[in-house]
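Researcher: Structure prediction, please.
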Amino acid sequence: MSALPDIERWNPSLWDDDIGNPDVKEFFQDQLYALRTGRIEKGVNTYVRGLSRSGKTSTVRLFARCLMCVELNLETLNPCGHCEACTTQLDRFGEQGMFSYLRGRDVHFMPIDCMQIRGADHLRDLISGMADYNGVKVILLDEISRLSFRGLDELLLGPLQSLNYMWIATSIDSHKIDAAVLNRFPAKFTTVLPTTEELAMLLMRLCRQWGIPYDDPATLCLLAEASNNVTGIALHALAQVNAKRGDARALTRHAVEGFRDRLAG
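Model: Predicted structure follows.
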């Protein structure tokens, strides 16, 4: 079986691999520490806007994974890597979300793909289902603007204010979102892309991890630049290289130049 889907779906499992978005990362790390040490009972409602594949959802998933990790390292805030929360694909466990039994307090995380919401009743059912759980409750509204297109975002006004959940919303564009809904998110961020050097260093680590040869470190910088420093686009290029046979399975300057030309075309 090709490793293509794994590379395309890669998400950081350590904070050092979550490149770019320094303010977003610092905020979620602070929230993580405060929640896990009991300094706060509920996280701050947070809205993150930015380009597609710029790290919005992957940062939230890392936050959720760390929040549910049974053996979280409170010094580095990195997850242990071997408990159920660390080994479960957070985007593949269905609409009921994921529950983690922690010492002293439990955590329930539920991602809602707003593109998949079938209607008002579907959205209400998902939100009301969280009421059966105790402890920390986190709901991710991924691409919340998709609710706005169908006039469903106003259904969130009551729950966002009255329910004791931490709400996290992401979107490419905030122009269509009701202003009253956005006002329910006191913490607002816009994504910041990594530098070329940061992305090139990440690509070097990932190439070594996946056994993908590259001809020169400069090629990694070239790929970062060709991807406009968007991690998800660079991963797409790596996935294409990884799917090739024989000697063609290598990241070369020629391969990157071809990828850049296809993007430009």
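Model: The radius of gyration is 19 Å.
Researcher: Thanks, that helps.
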